[in-house]
Amino acid sequence: MIDRAVFGAVVRRPRLWGTAVAAVVAFAPRGWWRRRPFLPIPDDEMVRWRIATAYGSSEAAIDPADVVAYLEWRHQSAQG
Description:
By secondary structure, the chain is mainly α. It is 59% helix and 0% strand. The relative contact order is 0.20.
């Protein structure tokens, strides 16, 4: 569900890698380790809902700058 532009925006910021991994795990469904593919992949329905609440439509493209801004905010919040 994450496109190359979003992935590229995060990859170019190594300082946010740990924050990005923590965010993915936080959005993963409970018990993700019990179901194939045994990865903390967020539920498609939840991702569609998050996109719809952010952009007004679940079909909207995710703006990489928004993802980076969210990760920056999350990173700063974790720093205290």
